Each structure stands twice: as C-alpha cells, then as structure tokens.
Amino acid sequence: MAMASKVTDFISCPVCLEHFENPKILDCLHSFCEHCLQEVVDKNFRNLPTFLCPECRAPTRLPAGGVCELKSNFFINRLKATVLSKDTSKEDADVEFEDAKSRALKFSKQSEIDHCTKHLTNGLAWYCEECKDLICTSCKKESHIDHDCSSLDVVTAKVKQEIYGELHQLRVKSEQLYPDLNIEKERWIIKKHEASVASQISDAQNRMQRMVNEWSDGCRNELKAMCASAEKQLTAIEDLRAMGKASMESACRFTERLLSTGSKVEVVRLASQCKTRIGDLLSFDAPLPALPVLETDLGTMDVAVKSAMSLISDELHKMRRTGGFQVTLDQAEPREWVDAVSTHPNGDIYVRTLSTDVKKGRVITFGSAEEKKGDFKVDGIVGMTTMPDGNIAVTSWTRKAVVIYTPSWQEIRAFGCIKPGDITVNSKGHIIVICSDQMVRVFSQEGVQLLAFPSKSEAEVQYNSHVSTGQHDEIYVSDPNDDCLRAYSPSGKFMYQYGTEGDGDGQFTDIRQVCCLPNGNIAIADRENHRLHLLTAAGQFKRFLLTHENGLSNPAAVTLTADRHLIVGECDGAIKIY
Questions:
Q1: pLDDT of residue 107
Q2: CB 569, CB 341: distance < 8 Å
Q3: What is the enclosing helix (H) or strand (E) of 422?
Q4: Is the pLDDT at 113 greater than 60, yes or no?
Q5: β-bridge pairing 323-326 and 574-577
Q6: Is the separation of the CB atoms in 531 and 551 below 8 Å?
Q7: Are 79 and 8 in contact (CB under 8 A)?
Q8: Fewest Cβ atoms closer than 10 Å to its Cβ: which of 70, 243, 341, 499?
Q9: Cis peptide upstream of residue 454 (ω within 30 degrees of 0)
C-alpha cells in the first residue's frame, strides 16, 4: 500500500492534488498541471517575466507564449497512463513503484513520440553538436551532413555520466547542508536563558514584598513572549534548512528516475534543464541566518509600581558572572598587557597580548573548561581572528604580512600587507585588516586585495585600534585618538561615527576592542572609563553592559564564546565570562 501511495503521489499535482493534466516541468524540476500553473501566474505573477515555483519558491522564466510553452513532462504522462491502465481494484492498490516505472518505460517504447518532426516516420537517432538538436538519419544526410553528429546512444551515455557525477555532489551537499547548525543546542540555549531569567525574576520577587504579583506576572509574560519569538525564529531557520534539503532531494529523485527509466530522447531533452537545476543547487550557498539572541531588558516592562520596577530592573540588568581565569603576564619591562580576546568554534579561548616591544606579543590558548592549553609566540603579532574553516589568521608587524595557521599553530601560508594592525573576517571569508597608514584593506583568503578605504574625502581617521564586522558585514573600526567608533558599509562607504572624548553616555576614554552581537547590537570596550557600551547597529547608545560598579577594571577586550557568553579581558590579565 505504501508503494501504491508513492505512485499516486508521483502522478498527482501538488497544487490541485489530482492526477496531472498536461504536466509542465519548471527549472527546479518540479511539475504541475498546466491549468494550475496558469492560475498561479494569473493570480500572483501577472505581467512578470518570471514566477516562483509553488513548492520550493525557486524562480522560473516564463516563455514568451506563456505557461503553455513550458516543457511538458512526458515522463509523468507515461507513468500516469501506465498506472491508470491497470484495473482500479486491489491490483491497482498493490502496484509496486519500480514495476510501474518499468512498465512506463515499456509503454513509452511502444507509443513512440520520439519521431522527427520533418520526416514523420523516422525515429530520432542522432544529436547534432553544432545545432544542439535531436535529428533523424535523413536529416543528418540532408541538412547536417557537415555537422558534428553523435548517435543517440553515445550522447545518452555521456549525458548520464555527467549528470550522475553532479548528482553525487548534490547528494553529498544535501547531507552536509548547514553542518554547523545544531538546532537542539540552540533550543537548549533558549531554555537555559529562560530558566536563568525566570530564576532572576523569582529572586527579585522575594526581595520585593509590595505589589510583587503584578510585577512578576508582567515579567514572566514578556519572558515567555521573548522565548516564543526566539523559538519561532529558530523554527524558521529549521524550515529553511528543510526546504533547501527538500529541493535537493526532489531534484535528485526526479533526475535519478529520468536517468534510470526515461527514454533516450527524454534524457537528452531534459539534460540541460537537469544540469542547470543541479548546478543551481550545487551553488546554493545561502548564509546561515542570524540565530536568536536572547537579551532581556527588564527595565522596559510596563509595571504598576515604577519605583519598585526600577529597583528590580537595576538588579536584573547586572550581568551575572559565570566564570573566568587569570592570565599570567610578564611584569618585567617592557610590560605585557591583554589587548584582545577571540574564540574558536571548538570552545577554545585565545588571549592576545601586546607590549611596547612588538616581538614580545603572544597568544595564550585556554580550553572551554578554562584550563590553559598552550602559549604561542608570534613574531610581531598585532591582530588575530578565527577563519570560517577553523584556521587562525594573524597579522604580523615585523613580517608585514597576514599569516594563516592551523589551530595547532602550524603555518599554512602568508601574504604581504602594508603596516598591518588588527584583523577580522566577514561572512564571505574575506580578510579585513586595519593598517597604520589609516587604511582598511579587504583581502581574499588567497591574499588578493579586493578593497581599500576610506578615501581622503571621507571622515579623517587618526588611529585605528580594533576592527570587527557586523550582522550584515558592516565594518566597525575603533579610533582611540578621537575616542570614537566609525562604521562602514561592506563596500567601504562611511556610514556614521559614534562617540567623543569624556566619561558620559556615548563618550570614551581609550576605546578598544569591538564585539558585534548576532542581533546587530555592538559591545565596545571603554578602557579608562572601566565599562562596556551597548549600541544598536545604527549607532544609538542603549546602555552600559558593565561598569566599574560591576567590578570591571580597564577592559581592553570583548568577544563572545561559541554558546554566546560574553568574555571581557582586562589589561592586567583578568578574563571574565558573563
């Protein structure tokens, strides 16, 4: 019965759920009744050159003559005719899918439509490489005599071999789609955050005796709505992956059926369309959408007693320290200090140090359990970042180069860079380096310079300290000389400047490392004011994440762990995790 259902599904239109009527095949290899497609086009894509597949939303160009000129799916027509030719009793219910396909192939050979349109009694037996067309023997002798023609058997074998190779690649990619996405882990983070915030709410409730019921109900409702929204966002990401995988599986199934059971003419006729679709899917490289970021701003809740809410909000805005460790620094002159912190997807934490002696810089590696794993001296290191493939990119002032290492610090390759400073990488894997000539340079992973900015007509840069990229590959550069953050578009266009010198809101005294959060917000280390700023992606001040009152002292580094805990590195070697 399951196999019978398979047959019925294959010959049924996904739109009307009835047996196909004049099925038309789209670029994505999905098929629909002609009249169903016509309704879709008339309703949603009238007077447009392309329309979207009702099943996978892939675009298909509409022929000049409309839906009727799309390619007909003769293979489905034959399978339908074969299945429906059986008795509609128990035998039809028990029909085996593979048997139905073989009978469809036999049926197709018995009811040949593969004849020359010019010589109606001649079968198509040749393929003209020059005209890209199927022809009969008479055509070959008359109008294609000087053309490079191959027999249908040879062409079919060649096309099948090519498509099978690409089909294998598509199968592999289908299994590896978003390999780094762990849905269960993301759900665990949501639940953990919900439990953590709920616990904070309960603690505050116990401390606040007056009107606590009204306040706590409001807190919990907002918390549930926030986590429900995060779960919905995560489900949408899961659906995106499922849709991509389904499109690939659908293309694989159709192509395999065509190659194994389609006639030679059908294989050749649909070869280009199959290869185009497989090529499109093989090149599918949609970036992983932003994962949910859970940030609870309890101070914005509308509560009955504002004074009580203010006290509770102050308590809950305090970031809870969950761990940390002390890096032992060289106190001999010239002294060493922590300049930046970065992380690896495997959970390792890299602490980069600097000194007035550029040869003294090093990278100290700590595991996810905060145990020291290694200490690596990099000659003239002034910046480092983790690449999408897990390797490490380092800028060396003495070598005037970007150097790529494995996680075990084996050098892979290097390329030159003028007066390099801090380094980061965007979602495309492009390497971004700030240089002491006040330029920001963007390189391919092979070291080809793709972009350099700013131009002299834009805001003058005094001194670049640290660089980071945003959710949409915006580039953020900190400038301690002017005590400001400058934001640039991915193409290097100046967007805005945030900050002035001072100790008020929106002011810095020695701005340092910048950390872009997955929700687009920006955390910035303000070293001499002993605090972290929180900005929107548009450069609007939100609040201070941490201050001296939270025990923060000379923060120079800020980044996120793989599970989105905030790491703050202080100049004296204290690494604090929140």
A1: 43
A2: yes
A3: strand 420-425
A4: no
A5: antiparallel
A6: no
A7: no
A8: 243
A9: yes
